[in-house]
Amino acid sequence: MSAEKELASAAWLNEPGTKAVMEALLADGGAARFVGGCVRNALMRVPVTDVDIATTHTPEKAQALLEAKGIKVVPTGLKHGTITAVTATRHFEITTLRVDVATDGRRADVAFTQDWEADAARRDFTMNALYCDADGTVHDPLGGREDVEARRVRFIGDAHQRIEEDYLRILRFFRFHAYYGKGEPDSAGLRACAEKREGLRQLSGERVRDELLKIATADAAGAAFRQMAAAGILAIVLPEASRLDRLERLVEIETQQLFLMGPDPLLRLAAMVDLDAAGVVSLAERLKLSNKDKERLTGIFTDKTKIVCYLSMREVRRALYLMGRQLFRDRVTLGWADERPGRNAFQWRALLALADSWQKPELMLTGEMIKAAGVPEGPEIGRVRREVEEWWIDSDFIDDEFSIIERLKAIVQATIY
C-alpha cells in the first residue's frame, strides 16, 4: 500500500543536497527511494539522523550518475552494493536493491535485483522495510506501517530465519524496542531471540559492543537489559552485569536530573557492573574497547578516593586536582546512582556543578626555582617538586609565592644537606 506524498514536507527530504542526490539517481531510467530509518522516524515524528536510499541502479552506475552531477562518492561497500554520497550537509548511504543468496549468521552473500518487495523481505524488521519516493509518497510492502503505529518491533517473516541470517539481530531487536517500542516486546520475536541466543557467541566483540552501547543510550535501557537478562541473552554478551538496579537509577538521574547533559553510554555500562582491574581488562578485551574507554573504566573501578555527597569544598578541590574532572564526575554520578531514589539529590548535583566550574590551579614553582634553592640537576628536582606539591595540596592550593618558596627551602635543607 502507499500513502500519497505523506512525507512531502519532511525537512530532510527537502534539503538541497537530498534533492540533488535523488535527481541524479532518478536519471537514465533508474528508480530510487528513501528507505529504513529516515522513513520510519519521519512517520513516528522523531528526529531523523541518517538518510539511506535504495536504488535499482548497480553501485557502479549510481556512482557514475552522482559524480556526473558533481557529487562526491565513496565506494564504502561495493561488494554488497553500497556507496556513500557526500554533500555539504549530509552523507547518504545508497544501496542497490538486493537479495541474500547465502548467510552464515554474521554476513551475507548478495545478488542484485530489481524487485522492491524482494529487497524488503531480506531486511530485519517490518518498520525498517518502509520506502519513500522523492515526492514523499510512502510505500509499505510488508505491513510495517501498522507496526509503526502500534510501536511494535516485529521481525519480517519467520523470526528464527531472520536471526539465523545475522545473530546481531537479537541485540537489534532489544535496541529497536527500547527506542521505538511500546509495552512488552513482540512475543514471537522475544521467543526466537531466547531460543537462538547461543548464536551471539559467533559475533565479533566490536559488533556486540556497538549494540550494547546503543541499547545503553536509550531511555528505556533498564527495561531492555532486564528483558535480555530474563531471556538468557545478557549472560552471554555481558555476564558481568550484576547491577541493573544502579543502571536504572543512573538513567533516572540522567533523564530527570541531568537532562541537559544527555546519556553517557560508557558510564551506563559501568553502572551495570562491579569490576576489579583484571575484570576491566577482560571486559575491554572481549568488547574491543578503545584504550581511552578502558582507562576510564579502570579509573572508575580502581580509584580509592572517598566520594560522598557531603564532601567539603576543600575535599572537593583536592579530589578534583588528584582525580581530574572526568573521573570525579564519573565517581560522583555513580555514587549518586548508588543512593536510594530521592536521597541527597541536591548535594550530588552540587558536586557535579562544582566540577563543571572548577579551574585546575597551577603550582607556582619551576625547575629553575628549585635549582636556585640548591637542588642539583637530575631526579632530585622532580622529587623535591612532588614534596612541595603534596604540601601545597594539603594547604588547599595556597597561591602565596613567599610561602611556597619557604616550604621549598625547608624541604631542601632537611633532605639535601
How would you portray this structure in words?
Among the domains are: 1-150, Beta Polymerase, domain 2; 303-357, no CATH class; 367-415, no CATH class. The protein is 52% helix and 10% strand. The chain is built from 21 helices and ten strands. The strands form two sheets. It has an eight-stranded mixed β-sheet with strand order 1-10-9-2-3-6-5-4. Strand 4 and strand 5 form a beta hairpin. Helix 10 runs antiparallel to helix 12 (244-256), helix 16 packs across helix 17 (325-338) and helix 20 packs across helix 21. The protein starts with a strand and ends with a helix. The mean pLDDT is 93.
What's the short story on this structure?
This protein is α+β, with helices and mostly antiparallel strands and 417 residues long. The chain is built from 21 helices and ten strands.
